[in-house]
Design brief:
Pfam families: Thymidylate_kin (PF02223). With about 220 residues, the protein is an alpha/beta fold. The protein has helices spanning about 30-45, 60-70, 75-100, 110-120, 125-140, 155-160, 175-190, 205-215, and strands at about 20, 50-55, 105-110, 145-150, 195-200.
Length: about 220
């Protein structure tokens, strides 16, 4: 696959940018998503582009149907990972790649890093198996920038306590989320040019100052 930041879809407008938000449940990323999208849209507009907001699992009719199953139904760990990547393949084909190809930008609430963190780190599925699926499904596609909202697990747990009725992932133990966070940080260490880590224990204003600094680099 060609580089998603330098290839061109027509001769005039550059290929769009692909930005992802990541973090354990309770990290606070969703709190900032709309604000970040508004600010990101200002940057994209300078290139005549729009920002499309999407999510994983989800983003397509098939993906949203699979999301309900994944978040609510118990299943074998490998089946869970395969369904995640099935939803992702559809998401890439139907939403992400066409959007980037026409020069628009994609902002996704989670992508493959979440699968490595949750199914790999949290649940203990072989990282090697996930890497095979990643290579097959994505064919080299990676986000231009991944914003990782990082908080200690006890902080995230306290935040989740005030949320709506939890899904099966939100109901997991602090030990699960400690493993999930560790895998996120391992992924970030492997790809420091792609990841921007936000200290999400800060106030909303302070987090947005960090996000402003990231926006300048896009």
């Amino acid at each position: 696959m060609t580089d998603i930041t330098t290839s061109r879809h027509d001769g005039h407008r550059p290929r769009g940018k692909f930005i992802t938000f990541e973090g354990i449940d309770g990290a606070g990323k969703t709190t900032h998503l709309t604000w970040f999208c508004d600010r990101l849209s200002e940057r994209a507009a300078r290139q005549g582009a729009r920002v499309i907001v999407t999510r994983e699992p989800g983003g397509t009719p098939l993906g949203e149907a699979l999301r309900e199953i994944l978040l609510r139904q118990p299943m074998h760990l490998e089946a869970e990972a395969l369904l995640m990547f099935a939803a992702r393949r559809e998401h890439i084909a139907a939403v992400i790649e066409p959007t980037l190809a026409r020069g628009d930008w994609v902002l996704s609430d989670r992508f493959t890093d979440a699968t490595f963190a949750y199914q790999g780190g949290g649940r203990g599925l072989s990282i090697d198996k996930l890497q095979v699926l990643e290579q097959w499904v994505q064919a080299g596609l990676q986000p231009d920038r991944t914003v990782l909202f990082d908080v200690p697990t006890d902080t995230a747990s306290a935040r989740r306590g005030g949320a709506r009725a939890p899904d099966k992932f939100e109901s997991e133990s602090d030990a699960f989320f400690a493993r999930t966070r560790a895998e996120y940080l391992r992924r970030a260490a492997q790809a420091p040019a792609r990841f921007a880590i936000v200290n999400a224990t800060s106030s909303i204003a302070e987090v947005r100052e960090q996000l402003e600094a990231i926006l300048i680099t896009l």
